[in-house]
């Protein structure tokens, strides 16, 4: 296949180039690649009675090996195939779920900057292992930066309503708002309220969490998860040690002062 030099600026080229030069940047490459909408040779059909459409992809031979060509932009695809073939535009993470992964992919074949992605690599992309691995390789500062950049902030009116609702649960001592960051998902951090509570049996605690979840989420525009901050939960020390509670159970003196 004849190689083409880039005739325009493709932002994804820099992401790939950085990952080639610096292994620490590989998490950012794989994360961006999973979120990328790629161009693939082929078409889509949907037969009567089928719930989901069927992909009909065209594989090509490169260096005597059958591969699936995928492109990061339509411009690159057209430069190679001159608009002579049909194509499918689809997110990488969707494509991974829809086809067998027994054939390598080549990202931007025909260009000087390209990457072969072998089946084993594709499998770890599909189940998220490779993203977790490279996320763990990042420095603590880089992880914190990623977390801070995407942290979910709740409006004051919602937090005030949530605080008022928590007062109806006498066993809740303190409540903290934090976020759960999953390096695999593309939905961003998930808001979570961690609760410090007086000890009760497991059934009572489970019922408390369920009730608080239903109560809190009637005010929120985005679903908020609820968790008990117990000693067994690794998140507990990080939350209690670094986050100020947004709710603290009123003391007896606080309650008495309401009648003054």
From TrEMBL:
InterPro entries (UniProt xref): SseB_C, SseB_N
Domain called SseB protein N-terminal: residue spans: 16-123
Domain SseB protein C-terminal per the UniProt entry, residue ranges: 150-249
Protein name as it appears in the record: Enhanced serine sensitivity protein SseB C-terminal domain-containing protein
């Amino acid at each position: 296949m004849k190689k083409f030099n880039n005739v325009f600026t493709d932002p994804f080229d820099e992401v790939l180039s950085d990952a080639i030069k610096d292994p620490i940047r590989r998490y950012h490459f794989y994360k961006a690649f999973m979120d990328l909408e790629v161009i693939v040779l082929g078409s889509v059909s949907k037969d009567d009675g089928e719930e989901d459409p069927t992909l009909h992809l065209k594989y090509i031979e490169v260096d005597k090996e059958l591969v699936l060509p995928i492109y990061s932009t339509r411009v690159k695809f057209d430069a190679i195939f001159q608009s002579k073939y049909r194509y499918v535009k689809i997110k990488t993470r969707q494509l991974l779920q829809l086809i067998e992964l027994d054939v390598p992919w080549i990202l931007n074949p025909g260009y000087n900057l390209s990457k072969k992605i072998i089946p084993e690599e594709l499998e770890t992309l599909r189940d998220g292992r490779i993203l977790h691995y490279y996320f763990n390789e990042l420095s603590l500062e880089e992880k914190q930066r990623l977390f801070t950049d995407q942290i979910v902030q709740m409006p004051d009116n919602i937090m005030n309503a949530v605080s008022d609702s928590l007062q109806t649960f006498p066993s809740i001592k303190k409540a903290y708002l934090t976020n759960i960051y999953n390096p695999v998902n593309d939905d961003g951090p998930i808001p979570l309220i961690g609760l410090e509570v007086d000890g009760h049996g497991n059934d009572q605690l489970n019922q408390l969490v369920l009730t608080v979840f239903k109560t809190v989420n009637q005010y929120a525009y985005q679903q908020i998860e609820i968790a008990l901050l117990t000693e067994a939960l690794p998140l507990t020390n990080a939350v209690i040690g670094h986050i100020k509670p947004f709710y603290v159970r009123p003391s007896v003196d606080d309650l008495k002062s309401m009648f003054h």
